[in-house]
Amino acid sequence: MSANSKIPLEQKITTEKKAIKLVMLGDFIMAVFGLVFFYLTRSQAILMDAVYPFVDMVAGLLTLRVVSLMAKQAHQSQPFGYAIFEPVMNFIKGILILLVILVGLYASIKAIILGGHHIEADIAVFYSVLATVINFALAYVLYRMNQTAQSSMIAVDLQGWIVGGILSVAVGLSFLAVIWMESAGYDEWVPYMDPFVLLALIIMMLPMPLKILKENGLQIIGRSDNAEHLAELQQRTSDVFADVPVVDIKLRALQEGRMIYVQAYIQLQPQAAFDLNQQDDYRNRLYQQLKQTNDYLSLDVIYTAQPIWVARSDGEASD
């Protein structure tokens, strides 16, 4: 049994909600600090630091609603529950992050073309130190909380705060470079530093939303590239049916956020004595085995003695 299975599901949900509220509080603080220091420094890099957390804070309100929906059971109008909402929410957040980056890209290129602009570098250095501390402190707290919550949505937020901390360090170093350039007599280059720094931040941040969009986009359209997880499910299923006269076992698994839907096709030997009570008993054994590492599990077990049904389970047979 894994360590994850020892954590009650209710505790995971409660911790996840607390983490989301903490992220929203951190977003609010960073947005306020960013806007104040943008007014004092006129740095577009700092403005981008203010706009992103504001957008993320708005998305956090939707995230709280999604977490509440995830706890609800499936019903007639929503037969597969609300699992799809999680990758959709993460996908939307990925789009929002990408939009902020594209706006920043436009602003940086425009500033470079127009000859740059002057910033108050000494104040900006103070901001970068403050932002670095907040970003890494919150990232650490989220990391600890997600050891309990085990939430993909918290993992996305955690990535954002880690990247934010790294970028704040880079911004601080660039502003120190501005101070040095002013003292060394390279005044003609100073106006270009802020848009170039913003451009560098954009290049560093771009992989994050693209990764979020890819992973959650695949889940939305019903695809999965997690071969390792499927192999683990296959092995656990084989272990459960090890003493059953099985000819073949075929698994299909669909991951949507934290929910996983598993279809297990069990091909028995044609003359196998395997009554309904035994079928239900082994179905329950498999469910309990997979449930150890998958809190949100939906399982179908299909028994058959005809290989055609196993082949049809993944489209190998068309007739």
Describe, in plain words, how this protein is organized in 3D.
With 319 residues, this protein is mainly α. The chain has two domains: 3-220, Up-down Bundle (Alpha-lytic protease prodomain-like), CATH 1.20.1510; 227-312, Cation efflux protein, cytoplasmic domain (Alpha-Beta Plaits), CATH 3.30.70. It is 68% helix and 9% strand. The chain is built from ten helices and three strands; from the N terminus they run ααααααααββαβα. It has helices spanning 9-41, 44-70, 85-113, 121-149, 152-184, 190-205, 207-220, 227-240, 276-291, 307-312, and strands at 246-256, 259-268, 296-304. Strands 1-2-3 form a three-stranded mixed beta sheet. The longest helix has 33 residues, at 9-41. The chain is elongated and about 90 Å long. The model is unreliable at 1-5 (pLDDT under 50).
CATH architecture verdict of the largest domain: Up-down Bundle
CATH class of the largest domain: Mainly Alpha
Indicate the CATH topology of the largest domain.
Answer: Alpha-lytic protease prodomain-like
Order of helices and strands: HHHHHHHHEEHEH
Number of helical segments with 4 or more residues: 10
Strand fraction band?
A: 5-15%
* Average pLDDT level: 82
Shape: elongated
The low-pLDDT segments are 1-5
Q: Quick one: biggest sheet?
A: 3 strands, mixed
CATH superfamily of the largest domain: Cation efflux protein transmembrane domain
Overall radius of gyration: 26 Å
End-to-end Cα distance: 42 Å
Query: What is the topology, as strand order, of the major beta sheet?
Result: 1-2-3
The figure for the number of domains is 2
Helix content: 55-70%
Label the structural class. Answer: mainly alpha
Number of strands: 3
